[in-house]
């Protein structure tokens, strides 16, 4: 269980009232968290973003709303410039890219700022 705690050490949890989005700044911390998540059948939505990306900024409040609404879904934000290896591993080629995962497996993907499509996929995979 110690792996779970250590993966949180360098994860930043940004929150506005009731929403929680994990942001990773270290590949090692991300890998530890990702490995731990393989044991849990919880929907994980990874937001691959960049500080310079306009559509990414446009999606920020949407993701915060989703995180507040879907409290049983884990929302994660990864900056592609900060963790290039992670974005390469997931073959991210456009921003924003949202990858939906369960038990360490990619189950869906949304390219671009398509909040309605993302919401439909979150609802589809909640069960």
UniProtKB/TrEMBL annotation:
Zinc recorded as keyword: no
Coiled-coil region: none
InterPro entries assigned to the protein according to its UniProt record, in alphabetical order: Thioredoxin-like_sf, Thioredoxin_CS, Thioredoxin_domain, Thioredoxin_H-type-like
Classification via PROSITE patterns: THIOREDOXIN_1, THIOREDOXIN_2
All copies of domain Thioredoxin, residue ranges: 1-127
Domain of life: Eukaryota
Keywords of the record: Disulfide bond, Electron transport, Redox-active center, Transport
Pfam families the record matches: Thioredoxin (PF00085)
The keyword Glycoprotein is annotated on this UniProt entry: no
Stored Gene3D superfamilies: Glutaredoxin
Name used for this protein in its record: Thioredoxin domain-containing protein
Annotated organism of origin: Phaseolus coccineus
High-level lineage: Eukaryota, Viridiplantae, Streptophyta, Embryophyta, Tracheophyta
């Amino acid at each position: 269980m110690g792996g779970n705690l250590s993966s949180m050490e360098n994860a930043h949890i940004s929150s506005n009232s009731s929403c929680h989005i994990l942001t990773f700044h270290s590949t090692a911390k991300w890998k530890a968290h990702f490995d731990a998540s393989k044991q849990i059948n919880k929907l994980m939505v990874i937001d691959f973003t960049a500080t310079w990306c306009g559509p990414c900024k446009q999606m920020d409040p949407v993701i915060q709303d989703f995180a507040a609404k879907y409290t049983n879904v884990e929302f994660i934000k990864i900056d592609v410039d900060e963790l290039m290896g992670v974005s390469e591993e997931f073959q991210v080629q456009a921003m924003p890219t949202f990858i939906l995962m369960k038990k360490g497996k990619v189950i869906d993907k949304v390219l671009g700022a398509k909040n309605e499509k993302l919401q439909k996929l979150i609802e589809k995979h909640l069960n």
